[in-house]
Amino acid sequence: MHVSVTVNGGRHDDEVEPRLLLVHYLREVRGLTATNIGCDTSSCGACTVLLDGESVKSCTVLAVQADGSTITTVEGLAPGAPEAAELHPVQQAFRENHGLQCGYCTPGMVMAAVSLLRENGAPTEAEVREGLDGNLCRCTGYHNIVKAVLAASRMPGATEVPA
């Protein structure tokens, strides 16, 4: 089937198998390997991306369902990405607050955090924890992840996503 999508600001037209999951499209067809495959059952959130500005677990969406949509992955989050020299404020906050351990969950956590901050620009700690529910960190690094999201909420541009 034919899909036409905008990924990280670039327009792409591809022929895909009808059953191809969006996560596999991003990784295998577009070469965007930061979108991780963690469980294939929507349990972990490692594959979270923004689809038309909303966070989705890309292992639950078929590529053909994204036809006509705009997709943002962690590689396209920073202004001027993918050649960006700077990080998006949420990425920067994760870096400064050690919001990662092994890093496997980080791309999905960052994308879920951006979506959360777009909905609630000044969340409480409890709201951050609730907003990231469904994104798992197997290293149990939640304390610093929450700290990073709270720090990002105080940074200019944290709710912005490049077009």
Low-confidence stretches: none
What do the pLDDT scores average to?
A: 94
Broad structural category: alpha+beta
Give the count of structural domains. Answer: 2
Straight-line distance between termini: 26 Å
In percent, how much strand structure appears in the residues? 5-15%
Number of helices: 5
Q: What is the fold-level CATH name, i.e. the topology of the largest domain?
A: Ubiquitin-like (UB roll)
Taken from the alpha-carbon principal axes, the silhouette is globular
Q: Report helical residue fraction.
A: 25-40%
Order of helices and strands: EEHEEEHHHH
Radius of gyration: 15 Å
Question: What would your notes on this structure say?
Answer:
With 163 residues, the protein is of the alpha+beta class. It folds into two domains: 2-76, Beta-grasp domain (Ubiquitin-like (UB roll)), CATH 3.10.20; 89-153, DNA polymerase, domain 1. 30% of the residues lie in helices and 14% in strands. The protein is built from five helices and five strands, in the order ββαβββαααα. The protein has helices at 22-29, 89-96, 106-119, 125-131, 142-153, and strands spanning 2-7, 10-15, 48-51, 54-57, 70-72. Strands 2-1-5-3-4 form a five-stranded mixed β-sheet, with helices on one face. A hairpin with a 2-residue loop joins strand 1 (2-7) and strand 2. The protein starts with a strand and ends in a 10-residue tail after the last helix. The mean pLDDT is 94.
Short overview:
30% of the residues lie in helices and 14% in strands. By secondary structure, it is an alpha+beta fold.
List keywords for this structure.
DNA polymerase, domain 1; alpha+beta; Ubiquitin-like (UB roll); 5 strands; 163 residues; 14% strand
